[in-house]
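Each field is set out underneath.
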Amino acid sequence: MSALRTARLAWPMLLLFPSVLPLTPSTATERELRAARTLGAETETLRTASVHLGDVDGDGDLDLALANRNGQQNVVLLQQDGLFDDVRSYGSGSDETRAVALGDLNGDGHLDIVAGNIGQANATYLGRGDGTFGPANAFGDKKANTFGLALADLDRDGHLDVVVANVRGPNAAFFSDGGGKRLRQLAFGPDDHDTYGVAVGDLNGDDYPDVVTANSDGPDVVFLNRPHGER
């Protein structure tokens, strides 16, 4: 069993994670980012709090999973020929979702959705591989205040686990049994931090993902992933 041991983050400090894109060589051509298209219907204003990219329908194109706030329907936008007009919904249609992540939670080769909510339980939605998702599998506190998510195999058992960033409550790691529905909770950090972001990566080279939390009311904190009971 893994435990998350606190190591405070001194500021300023640069954190490098394996997911950070490599630096381009100095001979690379200069680039710029231009707006290509807008998303959503012209008559509707999206209230999106978080977005994650992944190929949820197995066609080789990256699709978009959107977490929408204020009770707006959560959606997945499937990419076809560079457009995102094929809209698939997930959730109840009135969820207060603030964070979303994609990952294969049950090992079937299809991406699943993890949604972080406020005022209700967080949830997983198992993907069917065609761009649609099954019903919600609630986990954690029934009145969660989750604003950030990260997925990683914390205990290296071959299954993705979930780390959630909470406001007005302890953060938590949820260890998966490989089915994507039953998640065992491990709370970590103080009860009074307002954590809005979380990232995972192996900071000390022991091959286990560690956790960094971004807090708005105190110092950011590094939590080292240690065997349970180790000092």
